Structures are given as C-alpha cells and as structure tokens.
Amino acid sequence: MRLFGSERIAKMMDRMGHKEGEVIQHSMITKSIERAQKKVEENNFGIRKRLLEFDDVMNSQRTAIYNRRKNALFGDKLDLDIDNMIYDICNITVVNTQQNSDFEDFNYNVITSFGIESPFSEKEFLEKDSNTLTEDLYQEAKEKYLRKTANIKSNIFPVIKNIHENQSDKIDNIVIPFTDGRRAMKVVAKLSKVYETEGLEALKALERNITLAFIDNEWKEHLREMDFLKQSVYHAQYEQKDPLLIYKLEGYELFQSMMDKMNRDIISFLMKAQLHDPNEQTLSSENNPRPKQDFSKLKAGREDVAQSTRMNSEMAQQNQSGQPVKHSPVMVAKKPGRNERVKILNLQNGETKEMKFKQAEPLISSGTWQMVN
After folding, report:
1. What's the structural domain count of the chain?
2. Using one digit for the tens of pLDDT, what is the confidence trace for 51-99?
3. What phi, psi does 171 have (nearest 5°)?
4. What angle do CA 187, 192, 193 make, to 5 degrees?
5. pLDDT at 15 exceeding the cut of 70
6. Which residues constitute the domain of residue 340?
7. Is residue 295 very low, low, confident or very high in pLDDT (cuts 50, 70, 90)?
8. Residue 344 domain-assigned?
9. 236, 243 in Cβ contact below 8 A?
10. What SS3 class is residue 74?
11. Does the pLDDT value for residue 286 go beyond 50?
12. SS3 label, residue 102
C-alpha cells in the first residue's frame, strides 16, 4: 500500500528506530514534513473557499428574506411590501398567460389570487400591451383591497368602542379571529391602539401576522430544498459541469418560485380575509381541488384547540335546537394582577415562558407574544 505525507514519515521514523517525542533535525525529514503540511493546508483552503462560494448564494437569498421579515415584524415599509406583492402578482399573471393567449387561465389566476373577476374582456386581454393590462389589474386589485379593509374596520370598530368605553380598565389586549374561507387565524392587538386608530391597528396586526407566518413557513421549506440541491449538484462534476454554477442557476429558480408562491398566499389571504364566524364551516379538501397550504403553524397554542372544540360543540347545539348560537367577533380576557404568574406564547416560534405579569406585559404589548393562561 502506497503511503503519503505524514503516514510515510511515521513509517520511515519507525524503521529508523526513532521513538515518539524525539527531536527531528535532519533537513530531508523537515522538508518532507513541510511539503506534506503545505498540501494539507492547500486542500483545506480549497474546501473552505468552495463552501464559502456556496454559502454566498444563500447569503443573498437570506438577506432578501430577512429584510422582508424585519419589515413585517416591526411594521416598517410593510405597506410598500404588500403593494409590491400585488403588483408583482399582476405582472407575472399577465405576462405568463398572455404569452399562451389563455384568457381562461388568466381569469382563474385573478380569482384565486385577488378574489375578483377580470377587469377587461378577452379581446382586450389579447390585444392590449402587457404593461397596460398589468396596470389596470393592479388598480382594480388595489381598490378591492382598500374596500375590504374599510369594510372590516367598520365592522370591528363599534365592538371595540363598546369594549373600550366599558371595560378598558380591565382589558389590555383583544383577540380578533379572521378567516379567508379555508383557514382561520386569531390576531392579538392592543385595545387602546385599535380604538385610537378606529380599527386600523387590527388590520395592521393581521398583515404582520399573516406575512410573518407565510415567510417563516416557506423559508423553512426552501432551506430544505436548497440543502438537498447542494448535495445533489456535486454529481454534475461527472458530466464535466461546474457544481457551483448549477447550484447558482437552480437555486435562483427555486428562490423565485418560493417568493412567487409566498406572495400569492399572503395576498390571497389578505384579499379574502373577513371576520371569522364560527357558525360557517371552512372548505374541506374534498371541496377544494387545489392543494391546501399547511396552516397549522399559525395556531396560537393550546387555547386554539379548546376554541375549536368549543366552536364544534356550539355548532352541534345549533343543529339540534335550530337556533343560531350568537358569537362576538372579539374575545377578551380579564387582566391579571401585576405579580400574578402567567404563561405566554411566542406567536412566531411557539416558545412558551412562565413569569410575573409585570414582566410579561412588555412582551405581550409588542404583539409577538400572547398570554395563554
């Protein structure tokens, strides 16, 4: 068996009778060790450089996602992000379907993404410039979103006003349930802010929570796909191709696909969002031909299970008695004492903590934590 580097030197030292720990002074041995060490360091440097080149691809994607997540988490430029998402979806939908002259597919995408009919006829779709069509569709979708937000505000504010005027000394945060017809989500907001903004803060909280939830869910799935891609591209070298180049090209396509899906899911929910009525059942997978997004991670914690059970029980009572069960669109909880121990839940990662209410209150006020007990 042929030996290289340090193994050859060790074998030679054994044959010459040198013992471990003895000082090696011969120039031939010293140079041989230096050459072996140099080869090892060059090999390790090449491996580290290659890994950094692969990581640079992920860094650019990571920066884009983290900026979006930061905007959603703190509310900075979130309005601009939502506006850009609407425009991007309009542009992609128009360009992709107009190339194939497929008005039916265009209309289907407009309905699923924005919940509206096409603002122009098939003839206009086939004859007009794509930029003009994109602008017309964007304006229609934007107007529809503004109408929906105004309608939700008008429905929320009377309830909020009543709670604030009668129970503001006992209630700090409120929980407002929203649904898009298939999925439901509970949004936590500060009562005083919702009252001061006449219901606008509830919509902002909805936008923040929905955007964060979909970003986190899609990004985790994308990381798994990129990790699998990184392991598989090394086989490209057997075809005399550069694995790094393949990784960059396919990684970009995966990222663009992930961003498009994420934007469509966010905008679709916001466009169709309405106050959740427990008396109305959401669509099941049997009634929905499209694959349904796994939205289980948007649940706030154990109280959601109890809430769902309570809803089912009330619906069963309604079926038996024939009388509808009345529900309030806003749920409230009694404010605990400052030194009373409470349990809080992180709405982003599911982490739970137990502490005194005076310590938990700043975390709950930030909107990222919710009290579960």
Report:
1. 1
2. 787 788 888 899 999 999 999 888 778 999 999 999 999 999 999 999 8
3. -115, 130
4. 65
5. yes
6. 336-373
7. very low
8. yes
9. yes
10. helix
11. no
12. coil
Question: Has residue 165 been placed in a domain?
Answer: no
Tokens matching residue 220: 């985790």
Q: Within a domain: residue 365? A: yes
DSSP secondary structure code for residue 337 in this structure: P
Q: How far apart are CA 18 and CA 334, in angstroms?
A: 81
Q: Among 41, 11, 42, which Cα is nearest to 29's?
A: 11
d(CA 202, CA 150): 12
Taking only the tens place, the pLDDT of each residue in 347-371 is 666 677 888 887 887 777 766 677 7
Q: Which residues, 6+ apart, have CB-to-CB distance to 196 below 8 Å?
A: none
Which residue intervals of 168-242 are DSSP H helices? Answer: 191-196, 200-232
CB 189 within 8 A of CB 202: yes
Instruction: Annotate 252-311 with DSSP letters as a single string.
Output: HHHHHHHHHHHHHHHHHHHHH-EE--TTSPPPPTTT--SPPP--GGG--SHHHHHHHHHH
**Residues constituting the chain:** 373
Residue 339: CB atoms within 10 A of its CB come to 9
pLDDT tier for residue 9 given thresholds of 50, 70 and 90: low
Domain annotation covers residue 367: yes
d(CA 188, CA 327): 18
Identify the CA nearest to 85 among candidates 138, 14, 156, 43: 138
DSSP alpha helix (H) spans, the chain: 5-15, 27-74, 78-99, 103-114, 122-127, 130-167, 191-196, 200-232, 243-272, 302-321, 357-365
3-state secondary structure of 64: helix
